[in-house]
Structures are given as structure tokens and as C-alpha cells.
Amino acid sequence: MTRGTRIKLLTGGAMMLGLLMTGCGAAPGGPAGGSGGGTGGGPQAAAQSAPTSRCTDRIDYTGDPRSNAEINSSPTCPPPQKPAREKPRCTDQKDYAGDPRSNAEINSIGATTGTCPPVHKPATDDTPRCTDQIDYAGDPRSNAEINSIGATTGTCPPARKG
């Protein structure tokens, strides 16, 4: 059997399984749909395809960890199970604005250690820039160069006229 044939068979089988599990392809009171080989109507086929026959059609199971097939296979509709609430993420508990780490990294640290890491804020320089203190209009140097000189030496360079 060639690879292409196997893929087609697997794809077709998966599609049929999906249709059967969701109840698609069967009309109420009619034969089970699909590409032939159906068993015809009957009370069981009608009950399976009726819009209100499945528990998942009647009750909201959003978030339930069980599969729809498991829920619908029960003789009576089981009560919905809600997943256990996870501890809130660190980025939902603290303001990490300005922290150089990604949200994923911060939340991963919190999940691993059980406590949220401290916020890393970038160092702030309260010293005003030279270009905010002195008028450098006409100076041929860029603002970045002038401010760099001021940050390195601790004093602002005198303005040059171009």
C-alpha cells in the first residue's frame, strides 16, 4: 500500500470518526448519513441525532476536563466539572511595567518557585540631560553626543557655534 493511499485512508477514517462522535450526518428519523453503509433509521439512530439527546447540547460543559464523548456516553447527564482554579499569574498580581524580562519568564519563575519574583525596574537617572539645561542651537554635535559627554564627565560641555 502506498503512502498516499494510507494517508487518504487515515484522513477518511478520522473524518468519519469525527462525524460519528459529533452526530453529524444523521437526520432525525432518517438513515445515518455519510457515504453509504448506514444502518438506517430506527429508534436508536433517531435518539442519537435528536438535537436535545446529547448532554453537551443541553448543559453547558465549558471548561469541563472530560471529552464530549465521555460526557455523552453516560446514561444520565453528569453534572459539569469545572477545572481547579490556577493561582493567578504573577503579571496579573504585580505591575511589571518596565521590567526587562518577558511576561512568560516572570510567570515561569512564579510557577516554579511558588512566589512571584521582585519587580526589576531599570535604573533611572534623575540627572537632567545637558540638552535640557543649555541651549545648544547651532552646535554641530548631535544631542546624543552632547548628553553622552555630560553623562561621562558629570558636567555639560560648553555650546559650540557651528
Summary of the model, kept short:
With 162 residues, the chain is an all-alpha fold. 41% of the residues lie in helices and 0% in strands.
Question: What features would you describe in this structure?
Answer:
This protein has helices spanning 3-22, 43-49, 55-58, 68-72, 90-93, 103-113, 130-133, 143-153. It has 162 residues and is mostly helical. Among the domains are: 43-84, no CATH class; 86-122, no CATH class; 125-156, no CATH class. The longest helix has 20 residues, at 3-22. It is elongated and about 90 Å long. The N and C termini lie far apart (82 Å). Residues 25-50 have low confidence and may be disordered.
Question: Keywords for this structure?
Answer:
162 residues, mainly alpha, elongated
In terms of topology, how is this protein built?
Layout: H1 3-22, H2 43-49, H3 55-58, H4 68-72, H5 90-93, H6 103-113, H7 130-133, H8 143-153
Output the structural class: mainly alpha
What is the CA-based Rg, rounded? Answer: 34 Å
Mean pLDDT: 78
H-E string: HHHHHHHH
**Tally of helical runs:** 8
Approximate helicity band: 40-55%
Net shape: elongated
> Strand count, sense and closure of the main sheet?
none
Query: What is the number of E strands?
Result: 0
Q: Beta fraction of the residues?
A: under 5%
Low-confidence spans: 25-50
* N→C terminal distance: 82 Å
